[in-house]
Amino acid sequence: MGHLTRACALTRAAVARGHVVDVLTNSPFAPGLPLESLLGPGATVHRLEAHLDKAATVAAVTAWLGDSTPDVLVVDAFPRGLAGELAALLPTVRAPRVLVHRDLNPVYVERFDVARAVDAFDLLVVPGEDAPFAHHPRAVRTAPWLLLDADALLSRADARRRLGLEATDPRPVVAVLGCGRPEEVVDARDTARRLRGLLGGRAEVRWLVPTVADGAGSAEALALWPALAVLTGVDVLVGSGGYNTVQEARATGTPLVAWARPRLYDRQALRLSDGERIADAAELEGRVASLLQGAPRERPASCVAYVNGVHPAVEGIEQLVLSA
User: Which domain of life is it from (predicted)?
Assistant: First the structure.
């Protein structure tokens, strides 16, 4: 979901500037999301089956690139591609090549000689957090990327209505995000249940999933995407240390309580601050209860007047293409 969200953020900003963008994704969330309506008429989304094996994934990407004549090719996070296929394919791409370069596990970097793969790119865009090759001579840093600009967020009142609260309901809202691996989506449901029992009527707890299919068949799930739009109405956000969750919480001033989920390439523990990271269910419950005691009912406007780094990223890519 993180890769798809970053791709959508870049696409949305590029389409708004008049560009035509094709997005290739194998995210298991992609089939159920209204991506085209959010991205605009200049975007086409190509959804690969998430469960293809390595050989089939390589074949699909190879075929897609063979049928495409892009003005620029942008790759998120993995310079070698979804399954290592880009190591051989990039030399055949005549267009300028851009890497969205975020933190990567150093074991992966060393094992697969990522330094060499990075050198195949004409521009590295580092979106708001440190990365192994952030000091590369072709690297540029931006502020974190957000899927929505601040002026696209709902007002607090509208966000609370979208979350299912009555206008006269003064209780704070705890949102539990279920958007990781399938077992993590179910874990988010169970966390929401525990918090609901712990807090009783003192707060409203919502279990948010991107699509209804991701709610493990439960009527408890509230399908809402992008969740960023309603964070203005959330008093405590419970999630993981993924790039988008963390950056969206910080941009909107939403208190975050998060697990550092194990990932093969991403290091969530490094992204989370001590005040955001929790280790077990007991710590989670105590942190949420503590945050709710001082939960603000209105956030200053300055809390959501953030800078979206995706816009200078698009401008940088435009300059690269013009100079090619």
Answer: Bacteria
What mean pLDDT do residues 316-323 have? 95
Domain ranges in the chain?
A: 2-145+308-323, 150-304
> What are the pLDDT digits (tens) for 114-138?
999 999 999 999 999 999 999 999 9
pTM for this model (two decimals): 0.93
Q: Which H, E and C letters describe the chain, residue by residue?
A: CHHHHHHHHHHHHHHHCCCCEEEEECCCCHHHCCHHHHHCCCEEEEECCCCCCHHHHHHHHHHHHHCCCCCCEEEECCCCCCCCCHHHHHHHCCCCEEEECCCCCHHHHHHCCHHHHHCCCCEEEEECCCCCCCCCCCEEEECCCCCCCHHHCCCHHHHHHHCCCCCCCCCCEEEEECCCCHHHHHHHHHHHHHHHHHHHHHCEEEEEECCHHHHCCCCCEEECCCHHHHHHHCCEEEEECCHHHHHHHHHHCCCEEEECCCCCCCCHHHHCCCCCEECCHHHHHHHHHHHHHCCCCCCCHHHHCCCCCHHHHHHHHHHHHHHC
* CATH topology match: 2-145+308-323 vs 150-304: yes
> What CATH class is the domain 2-145+308-323?
alpha beta
CATH tag, 150-304 = 3.40.50.2000
Q: What is the pLDDT at residue 68? A: 87
